Structures are given as C-alpha cells and as structure tokens.
Amino acid sequence: MCLSLASSLLAVGVALIHMVSPEPGSCANVTITQTYNLVRLMQANTTILLNTYLSHQGSPFSEPGFFNTGRLHYDGVPTIAIHFLEWRSMTDMERLGQNYRVYSIFFEFLQLIWDDQLEINPYETELLEMLKATQLHIKGLLSNLTGIMCSLGSPPTPLTDPLMMKVTEADTFEKKFRGSVVCYRYRQWVDRTVRDFSLLQNKYRS
Question: How far is CA 26 from CA 20, 104, 148, in A?
C-alpha cells in the first residue's frame, strides 16, 4: 500500500468519525447503524494494517505462516475466545460493555506500538500513519459506544490506565512481537464487533 493511500485512509477516518459522533438526544438505532458503518470501514483496513506492520519487522515476523506456529499470546492483549452460544446469549449491554473495555485497551496498546515503531522504524511513515489512523478509528468507536450505552440507560465505566508502565520495558524483539499480536488480535476483534453490531442493527432498526 502506498503512502498516499495510507493518508487517504486517515482522511476518510476523520470524516467518518465526525459523521458518526453521537449528539445529545440522538436515537440509539441511528448511532448503531452509523457505528456499524464505522466498524465495517475498520474491518476493511485490519488486514492491510497487519500485513504492513509485519512487512517492516524483518524475520521471523515477515515470513509466511508466522502466526501458524501458535505464538499468539501477549499479556494484556484481548482475545476473542468465546463459544458461539455464550456469545449469542449475551445481552446488548454485555456486548456493548465488552466492546468498550476491549477497544479502550487496544487504544492504549496502539499508542505503545506507535511509540515502539517510532524508535525501531522511524522512517516508515506509512506504517506510523496507519497506526495513528487506527487509533483515530478506535477513538471514534469508543465515542459512539458511549453514546449508544448512554441512550440505552447504562453509560460505560471508563477504564483507568489499562496498561501499566512496566509493560514498556521490553527489548526490540519483544516490542516487534507484541505489536504483531496486537495487530492480529485487533483484526479478530473487529470481525467480532461487526457481528455484534449486525445483531444490534437488526434489533434496533427503525
């Protein structure tokens, strides 16, 4: 992906987030539909982000099949491990609250990954811009989730500093690894969020 396309994604993200930011008195069903459109945009960019990130980290991260070796865990990075019936039986507020918590964590992790890449790959402007664009999308999503949950009568409880300072203490390999896991798990979570909002959209459709 060229730099101009990465910049375009950032511009599209800004425009979309302005469009979907909840306003006082807005109906939950309208914001849910707009948020579904936002997460579909996020979904379209997740594979590009992951592949771009891996391509700039060198071996073994850039090698085909890196994620087929079971190296998918990093402390604190949210996973989507849940059985279908458990997911399907969640209440609306449970589903929304879980998304709010998870993306609050991803927002901080992506800031940490950006800081890491600024140190490791300071001249890879494309990657740095994509990480910032992803953060911007998450910020818009969190804003919308807050609006929806308030409209439904149960505002979210903000997370206080999901990441502790000690997580920043890592060597270069670990920094590259955790960034890989964050981008991979983020892609999985956006896929799940699309499914979450597909259900919500059908339920609250005008």
Answer: 11, 23, 9
